[in-house]
Amino acid sequence: MDLTGFLGEITRFSNSIDIGRRGLATDGGEREGRIFFERGIAGSLELFQQAHESANPQVILLSELIFLQQELQFCHETDTITQSSLTQAIQSFEDALRCLKVIENSSEYQSAEATYPTASKYRIHGFPKDALHIACISHKTRLQNILRTPGMNIIEKTLLQQRILNMAAAQRSYVQKQRGVLLR
Predict the structure, then answer these.
(1) Could you say which DSSP state residue 105 is in?
(2) Crossing angle for the helix pair 131-147 and 80-103, nearest 10 degrees?
(3) What pLDDT shows up at residue 184?
(4) Residue 135 near residue 99, CB atoms below 8 Å
(5) Element spanning 123, H or E
(6) CB atoms within 10 A of CB 4
(7) Does position 1 have pLDDT exceeding 90, yes or no?
(8) Cβ 137 vs Cβ 93: under 8 Å
(9) Where are the domains of the chain?
(10) 51 and 9 Cβ atoms separated by less than 8 Å
(11) Helix (H, G, I), strand (E, B), or coil: what is residue 127?
């Protein structure tokens, strides 16, 4: 998988979603808006499914990070609640990506693991509930809350459900990395 091209496609499809939403809100632009929106959702869904199939936490997290950055860029300037939520999510994913860098150096991660409490609320399957797990858990909650929006288009809900599945896949794959480093 060419990661740069893959992430560029996510940017392109999220842009189509935004163009589509604007078209749907414009008198006379509804038809073209619907086309852009549906293409953007379908393309994004396909890419998020590919990320899921890769079982690579870096691909999954970068996909979500790029998508969130695009959503923030397209967010209306007066929508401060959404801007705040997206900014927090972006920061969480940036922190999660830092965890992936650290775990690649097993001695660093073993040292860092010793700083986490052993109580179960600070652990996932016995491993540290670090920034990656926290980002995935928080984002799943955020996406599940969005799914509760009444009247939301079913194709958009399908994309949200895939993104939730991706968070679980990233965590599973990351736990395997933690296991490999900490149970040697």
Answers:
(1) S
(2) 150
(3) 81
(4) no
(5) strand 123-124
(6) 8
(7) no
(8) no
(9) 3-182
(10) no
(11) strand
The answer to whether 126 touches 178, Cβ cutoff 8 Å, is no
Question: How far apart (Å, rounded) are the C-alpha atoms in residues 49 and 166?
Answer: 8
Query: Is residue 91 very low, low, confident or very high in pLDDT (cuts 50, 70, 90)?
Result: very high
Q: How far apart are CA 71 and CA 65, in angstroms?
A: 10
Residues counted in the chain: 184
The CA distance from 69 to 143, in Å, is 15
3-state secondary structure of 148: coil
Location of structure tokens 């994913």: 93
Instruction: Specify the pLDDT at position 139.
Output: 98
Torsion sign across C-alpha atoms 5, 136, 180, 184: positive
Contact status, residue 7 vs residue 63, Cβ threshold 8 Å? yes
DSSP single-letter state for residue 17: H
Average pLDDT, the chain: 96
Token digits for 67? 């998508």
Contact (CB, 8 A) for 42 and 155: yes
Q: What is the mean pLDDT of residues 91-109?
A: 95
Q: What is the pLDDT of residues 109-160, one digit of tens each?
A: 999 999 999 999 999 999 999 999 999 999 999 999 999 999 999 999 999 9
Q: Note the pTM of the prediction, 2 decimals.
A: 0.94
Task: Report pLDDT digits (tens) over 63-84.
Answer: 999 999 999 999 999 999 999 9
CA distance 103 to 163: 24
